[in-house]
Amino acid sequence: MLARAGAVRCSGLATVRQGVLRARDRAASLNAMATTNPPAERSNGQQVRRLFDRLNAGNVDALRDCWTSDTVERFPDATLRGADAIAGYLKAALAALPDWHIHIERLVEQDDDVFVHRQLTGTHDGAPFQGVAPTGRRIVLDGMDHFVLRDGAIVSNFVVFDQMQFARAVDLLPPDRSPADRALKAAFNAKTRLARRLRR
Questions:
Q1: Selected residue with higher pLDDT from 35 and 129
Q2: Which pLDDT score, from 0 to 100, does residue 25 have?
Q3: What ranges do the domains of the chain cover?
Q4: In the predicted structure, residue 148 carries a pLDDT above the cut 80
Q5: Per-residue pLDDT tens over the stretch 87-143
Q6: Of 71, 78, 144, which is closest to residue 114 (Cα–Cα)?
Q7: What CA–CA distance (Å, rounded) separates 94 from 88?
Q8: C-alpha angle 93/130/158, rounded to 5°?
Q9: Following DSSP, what letter does each residue of 63-76 receive, concatenated?
Q10: Pairing of the two strands 101-110 and 153-161
Q11: Can you name the CATH fold of 44-169?
Q12: β-pair partners for 154
């Protein structure tokens, strides 16, 4: 009886061991497939992350395969169409902020749409930008993008960033609630009151 019970226990342990080994081999096989057969296509979100990676590397021309001749980028100060116009705008921005870096705070994608909340940092010590000569000041600029992509290419991008934040960062506008800011607003309000009187 004891010998028979021992034999049953040994048989059961052997069966469990074989099951564990089979499961381990199956997991190893799946891992190997995942490693050797990566996804053939990027998701729209991955494509947008790739775009920002290349921008951070300063490689604007490498982004031309993301745009078509009909791609529209709407910036706060300009609406541009086509790869050449978009690349020219971005190169000018990079020339003004040679050390710029864009950090993605949040990215959400749904179907053709990708929404990005980002923060740009850099030093305004390169070329003039939007008519403002280099100031040597550090820039921290929050922004949002709404990309629409189809077949891996960008159809459009609606770009939003705080232009007043930029103007204050480069000292084009005085700090909020500072004496200079109050004086500027007082002068503006006086001008507005005068204009109203003249219209009567």
A1: 129
A2: 60
A3: 1-38, 44-169
A4: yes
A5: 999 999 999 999 999 999 999 999 999 999 999 999 999 999 888 999 999 999 999
A6: 144
A7: 10
A8: 65
A9: GGGG--TT-EEEET
A10: unpaired
A11: Nuclear Transport Factor 2; Chain: A, (3.10.450)
A12: 149
Residue 181: phi, psi to the nearest 5? -65, -45
Q: Which of 190, 176, 192, 153 is nearest to 63 (CA)?
A: 153
Q: In whole angstroms, what is the distance from residue 40 CA to residue 50 CA?
A: 15
Cα–Cα distances in Å, from 2 out to 12, 14, 16, 183, 188?
15, 18, 21, 100, 102
Q: Which residue has the higher pLDDT, 176 or 72?
A: 72
- What number of other Cβ atoms are within 10 A of residue 170's Cβ? 19
> Which pLDDT does position 199 carry in this prediction?
87
Q: Which two tokens stand for residue 109?
A: 């994608």
Tens-place pLDDT, residues 4-29: 545 445 455 455 456 545 655 665 55
What is the residue whose two structure tokens read 């052997």? 14
Side chain identity at 50, as an amino acid letter? R
Q: State the amino acid at position 87 in one-letter form.
A: A
